[in-house]
Design brief:
345 residues; alpha/beta; Arc Repressor Mutant, subunit A; D-Maltodextrin-Binding Protein, domain 2; eight-stranded mixed sheet; six-stranded mixed sheet; 9 helices; 16 strands; 23% strand; transcription regulation; DNA binding
Length: 345
């Protein structure tokens, strides 16, 4: 059976039409090259080169074989290059689960990631923590940004890297009684209508714990599983909502953003979890921890891990409250190599 090495030898002679120069190109001895060509001719049962003392020429059959050899060897090189990319993690697919409210900030990092690794497709799916952990454990996700890792998963099937914290803020309509305030105590939420999140939500637990610690009673008027729904209800005055600050800064109807004292935080946001051991391309997901190229970094959202920071967000103006309708940077939802699939949380 004819092999790729024989085709390489044949192609070298066919290009040079000179056995000695072809042997030098291949870095083999000329007699060994001549022997390989004669062996190939015997295998095929046909003469590929006309040889005399002065010149070497391709026969018609040799010219036909050269066309095939060029194509076959080019295809082999392309396959080797592609497989090398898969092995080195510069080609492939990353199925990434994103926590609610985080995808706007992930967009900029994903854009930079796609520029650096254009052959790695990133599929981003918005999920809650339970869905992401289940997706990681079941092999449906390669990595995820989760709020809280189940203790039984740490160091066993999943590897996690804490990347920082995000403050929770109160949002109201621009005409609400607390609108325009820069900061209010958590106790000020006593008796105020709130949009809260469904049972099992980490945000719900944090909000209710903060209210209880302040001696305030939660007056939950609406429950939702969507940050966008909570923000929409707050913007029209149906109820106030406590949301991650990145959610308050998303484009949409204006809301008044008020800081809380003490300020509750969505701890360890995000935690970059991935299956162990990861696929080669998924091993590149740690590059999402790099800071963007822009100069802005918000102090409260700076995550330090290996001297690297989380991306910036538009800060709430210091010293005053007010309406916020931010066209947040990083709102690119379609970039080369990655897609967004929103799911209800």
């Amino acid at each position: 059976m004819m092999g790729s090495r024989q085709l390489e030898y044949f192609r070298a002679v066919a290009r040079e039409l000179h056995f000695t120069r072809a042997a030098e190109t291949l870095q083999i001895a000329q007699p060994a090259l001549s022997q390989q060509i004669r062996k190939l001719e015997r295998q095929l049962g046909i003469t590929l080169f006309e040889r005399n003392n002065h010149r070497v020429e391709l026969t018609p059959a040799g010219a036909a074989l050269l066309e095939h050899a060029e194509r076959i060897l080019s295809d082999i090189a392309a396959v080797e290059d592609e497989m090398r990319g898969w092995a080195e993690g510069t080609r492939g697919r990353i199925r990434l689960g994103g926590a609610r409210g985080l995808t706007a900030r992930l967009a900029r990092l994903l854009a930079e990631f796609s520029e650096e690794f254009p052959a790695v497709d990133v599929e981003l799916r918005e999920m809650n923590t339970e869905e992401m952990v289940a997706g990681l454990g079941g092999g449906r996700l390669d990595a995820a940004t989760v709020v809280r890792m189940p203790p039984q998963e740490e160091g066993r099937r999943l590897e996690s890297l804490p990347l920082g914290e995000e403050p929770l803020v109160l949002i109201t309509s621009v005409s609400a009684p607390l609108a325009g305030r820069y900061r209010v105590p958590v106790a000020a939420l006593d008796g105020i209508d709130l949009v809260c999140y469904s049972p099992g939500s980490v945000i719900r637990e944090i909000v209710l714990s903060a209210l209880a610690a302040a001696g305030a009673t939660a007056r939950i008027r609406f429950e939702t599983r969507e940050y966008s729904t909570a923000r929409a209800m707050a913007s029209v005055g149906l109820a106030a909502a406590v949301v991650p600050r990145s959610v308050a800064e998303e484009p949409g109807q204006p809301v008044s953003v008020v800081r809380l004292d003490p300020e509750p935080h969505l701890g360890a946001v995000p935690r970059l979890a991935r299956r162990t051991p990861p696929e080669p391309s998924a091993g590149r997901v740690h590059r999402l921890r790099r800071p963007p190229s822009g100069p802005r970094l918000d102090r409260t959202l700076t995550a330090r891990l290996a001297a690297q920071a989380q991306p910036s967000v538009m800060p709430v103006p210091a010293g005053r409250g007010g309406a916020l309708s931010a066209a947040d940077a990083g709102g690119e939802s379609r970039r080369q190599g990655w897609t967004v699939n929103k799911q209800e949380i």
